[in-house]
Amino acid sequence: MREPSTVQAPRQTGVDLASRSAARPNRLVRLVQAIVAIAVLGGAAAAVYVMMSNQPGAGRSGAAREQQAVLVDTVRAERAPATAVIDAWGEVIPADRVAVAPRVSGEVVEVSPKLEAGGRVAKGEVLAQLDERDYEIALEQAETALAKAKADLRIEQGNQEVARTEAKLLGEELTEQERTLVLRQPQLESAQADVAAARADVEDARLDLQRTTIRAPFDAVVQSADVEVGSQLAVGQTIAELVGTARYFVELAVPAAKLRYITAAEDTAGQGSKVVFSNPAVWGEGETRTGEVVRIRPNLSAEGRMAQLRVAVPEPLDRNPRMLVGAYLRGRIQGAPLGDVVALDRAYVRENDTVWVMSPEETLEIRAVKVVYRGPEKVYVDVGLSQGERIVVSDIATPASGMKLRTRPDDGGREGGGPQVAEDPA
């Protein structure tokens, strides 16, 4: 009998075992990669959903739309009277300045102790005294000459009476020319002329004597002085420079386009535009002086083509803060009234002179307005805004008319107006 045959399984080699063990990790990696891809796609879908749900108008319920409206801040439009103010800078200059010089020559015998830089002198106060003796002698001589001329005139008048009597006694008919000669009319006129000339010499000598005393022509502060006792002065030699203290001028430069807002006192024969000056670095914060525009110069400045104003400030040294010649001040010119306008920060007026208004339906309205005046901080709107309207002051990334808006529960629209002063840069 044959023995039952047996079937033997094929023998596995080392190569087959290695391939099977490598296949298992590959399947695991692919499984992990698939899970990560699904997670990334799910996260992206969730982010898109959140972004879409936050857009204005997204959502289904009214409460959802309220939450999706853009949150903004607002101010209330307030119409109120405003005045244009032009900012300018200028230098302080004297309104009255004089170089003091003698009108007669002589030796200085006295000098006022106030005649030095910074000294204050009053009108008519003696600044210096020249030696009077030569001029006193000249006056006496002139007065003597006048007395002699008067005596000669009286003698000639006596001769006139004698000649008139003699002419009557002769009883002769004389021509007009002969009568003039007989009655000594030329001699009388010569004597009268001598008296008039002598009287003028006396007046001239008296003036020269008075001029030996050099006096201040007005209330002034001494800017400089150069005279000493014993100095020999010539006519016209400057001994001091005085600056009047009644008022100073400040010369301001403003754009010519702003002149329509400014009034000069000389042009109207009345009151000019008021100007408030400040100098915080020297005077301190809040310290100001006030002046008035008195004239507008007829030409523009060579540099910058600016209009030039002259502003008078009274009593510059007698009130605090004191004004000094040469100081550079900021002036704010109170110009013409603008009427009832809405004053807004410059940032609230958008491109092409538009304003964002929150309508009663709480939607955005992009409205064109008419700007009557622009300043460095404020813009003044004449037409386009009504009293109490809510002006959107927040920035919106992509504004569109009709988009839904919302405000905080406590935001009733801040006050945005009131009496205003319009400002303008120099």
Helix content: 25-40%
Oligomeric grouping of the chains: single chain
- C-alpha Rg (nearest Å): 50 Å
- Low-confidence regions: 1-23, 56-67, 415-426
Distance between the termini: 131 Å
Give a topology summary.
Layout: H1 14-53, H2 62-68, E1 70-71, E2 74-76, E3 79-94, E4 97-100, E5 106-111, E6 120-121, E7 126-130, H3 133-170, H4 176-182, H5 185-211, E8 213-215, E9 220-225, E10 232-233, E11 240-244, E12 247-254, H6 265-268, E13 274-278, H7 280-283, E14 288-296, E15 307-314, E16 328-345, E17 349-350, E18 354-358, E19 364-368, E20 370-374, E21 378-383, E22 390-392, E23 405-406, E24 414-415, E25 420-422
Parallel strand pairs: 1-23, 2-24, 3-25
Antiparallel strand pairs: 2-22, 3-12, 3-16, 4-11, 5-7, 5-10, 6-9, 7-8, 9-11, 12-15, 13-14, 13-16, 14-15, 16-21, 17-18, 18-19, 18-22, 20-21
Helix pairs in contact: 3-5
Give structural notes.
This protein has seven helices and 25 strands. It has three domains: 67-81 and 339-422, conserved putative lor/sdh protein from methanococcus maripaludis s2 fold, CATH 2.40.420.20; 87-95 and 244-337, Beta Barrel (Elongation Factor Tu (Ef-tu), domain 3), CATH 2.40.30; 103-242. Strands 2, 17, 18, 19, 22 and 24 form a six-stranded mixed β-sheet that branches. The protein has helices at residues 14-53, 62-68, 133-170, 176-182, 185-211, 265-268, 280-283; strands at 70-71, 74-76, 79-94, 97-100, 106-111, 120-121, 126-130, 213-215, 220-225, 232-233, 240-244, 247-254, 274-278, 288-296, 307-314, 328-345, 349-350, 354-358, 364-368, 370-374, 378-383, 390-392, 405-406, 414-415, 420-422. It is of the alpha+beta class and 426 residues long. The chain starts with 13 loop residues before the first helix and ends with a strand. Helices cover 30% and strands 32% of the residues. Mean pLDDT is 82; it is low at 1-23, 56-67 and 415-426. The relative contact order is 0.18. Helix 3 runs antiparallel to helix 5.
